[in-house]
Design a protein that fits this description.
Helix content: 40-55%
Strand content: 15-25%
Number of strands: 18
CATH architecture of the largest domain: 2-Layer Sandwich
CATH class of the largest domain: Alpha Beta
Number of helices: 13
Length: 495
């Protein structure tokens, strides 16, 4: 977590000023001091000549900072051409290497990108062979996105003094969003900050999940036509064009397209892709209750805000990945009970707000102690791993499967009713029953109990108790079957 704090401090530092020279010096100082780099440079792209030139550096040999590199030349030129980080763990063995300092032994070049366009390269060099481990490369890559935004903000300020109010709003949003590392809180705050700063009627955040876009947060004055958590196929318009081209869409009059309205009073809309390091994470949608409310001159500033949001979301995803290590079961690789307890409260609250329902399934491997006694704990552990993998593969990404304890599993289903939860549990039961576990000469089965919000309970304790009771009923009825809570009928295996 110390490195996450470094990333936070670095973001605060480079995003706290608009002066171009000061931004450049802060970027170099952070890369030099925080990441212990002997030589570091910011190389910018001359758009007219398509050559890279050194804008600012620390540690380069005298005179080398006057050189200009074409795209594809040197490690930095290769990174700019490929639009991705390029690492030379031993520069003496890399024919692409361009010598800027005789002390250099390894070099990492990370393109500085604004949306999908390269504006320069953060060139990091060490006097040690293979200095950059994967985690450091990830952190420098995330830092480079913050540096890119900082550079772009400085350029916008120098080119458009008349837009000072909006740029100050962008900077405020950048500072506040950088300080938030929880994804859910971040998205809510982003929507509120943008709506307040740019005085639009409503702001929404849609994030990409598989082949869908999901409404994850919104804030404003309009009446929603969709609930938070609502999903849209990414192949539908306007999403398809926005995601395919990574370009902003401006719809000036939505009166003739009521089916496309996310909010009842919306009359015009601007949709901006959230792009971080070439990856489209989702879409930022701004709505107005007036037709033709968005001007072309607004687009650049709002795209800069979208880039800041994308970077903050990417950082929050990174923090989530680090946190999840504490929530994983060491044997099976799925989530543990600690994560179950965390998520069930969130899912109940989401179901209460959105009215879309949720369900809990408690599942248990039948006669698991006997299986361990007969075939040994090594084989028993492998059965646990395979059942876990089976559950994980069969459930949607928005659902959660956890090892609740021993041979028992807790499953959280989002946006389902009790009948759908029962069908899911029955599908899992049949799959386990039909699976041939290597080394186990007999059939392995599970019993399961299901309970849904709000039919079987409106609190964590009520739902888990109902699902546990249903699981106990399934065991008492002979195992290898699925039951539901007391407010719904019981379904037996094969019935």
């Amino acid at each position: 977590m110390n490195k996450i704090a470094v990333l936070y401090d670095a973001g605060q530092a480079v995003l706290s000023t608009f002066d171009l020279d000061e931004v450049l010096q802060r970027i170099l100082a952070i890369a030099h001091d925080y990441f212990h780099l002997r030589n570091v440079a910011i190389v910018l792209l001359d758009q007219q000549s398509q050559e890279l030139y050194v804008r600012s550096q620390i540690g380069w040999d005298e005179g080398q900072d006057k050189a200009r590199l074409s795209l594809g030349q040197g490690i930095a030129g290769t990174a700019a051409l490929k639009k991705q980080p390029v690492y030379a763990p031993d520069v003496t063995r890399d024919p692409r290497y361009f010598c800027s300092a005789k002390s250099t032994r390894s070099e990492l070049a990370i393109p500085l990108m604004v949306r999908d366009e390269v504006v320069g390269v953060l060139d990091c060099q060490s006097d040690r062979v293979d200095h950059f481990d994967p985690e450091t490369i990830d952190l420098l890559t995330l830092f480079s996105t913050q540096a890119s935004i900082a550079l772009q903000n400085a350029r916008l300020y120098s080119l458009e003094q008349q837009r000072a109010r909006q740029l100050q709003a962008i900077n405020a949003i950048a500072q506040q969003t950088t300080a938030v590392l929880d994804l859910e809180e971040l998205m809510r705050r982003v929507c509120q900050l943008i709506q307040d700063a740019f005085r639009v009627s409503h702001v929404s955040l849609f994030l990409r999940e598989d082949h869908d876009l999901v409404l994850r947060a919104h804030h404003g004055m309009l009446t929603p036509n969709i609930a938070e958590g609502g999903r849209f196929a990414a192949t539908q318009e306007p999403w398809a064009s926005i995601l395919a081209d990574s370009r902003t869409s401006m719809e000036r009059d939505l009166a003739s397209a009521p089916g496309k309205k996310f909010f009842a009073e919306s009359a015009s809309r601007m949709c901006i892709p959230l792009v971080s390091f070439g990856q489209t994470l989702g879409v930022l949608a701004l709505e107005s209750d007036k037709t033709d409310a968005f001007r072309d001159g607004d687009q650049q500033s709002l795209e800069s805000v979208a880039d800041i949001c994308a970077t903050a979301i990417q950082n929050a995803h990174y923090v989530d990945r680090v946190k999840q290590l504490a929530y994983l079961d060491g044997l099976t690789g799925i989530f543990n009970r600690r994560f179950f307890e965390l998520r069930i409260m969130e899912e109940i609250e989401r179901a209460r707000r959105g009215g879309l329902g949720m369900a809990v399934i408690m599942a248990d491997i039948d006669q698991f102690k006997r299986l361990n006694d007969e075939f040994g704990h090594v084989l028993g552990d492998e059965v646990l791993r395979q059942v876990s993998s089976m559950f994980h593969q069969q459930l949607r990404k928005i659902d959660v499967v956890c090892r609740y304890g021993g041979e028992e599993f807790g499953i959280l289903l989002t946006q389902v009713n009790w009948e759908q939860a029962l069908a899911v549990a029955e599908k899992l039961r049949k799959m386990v029953e039909g699976w041939q576990f290597p080394g186990v000469p007999r059939t392995v089965t599970i019993s399961a109990g299901a309970a849904a919000f709000p039919e079987h309970g409106k609190t964590r304790d009520e739902l888990v108790k109902a699902a546990d009771s249903a699981l106990y009923a399934a065991k008492q009825a002979g195992r290898n079957r699925v039951c539901v809570g007391p407010m719904a009928r019981t379904k037996m295996a094969g019935s």
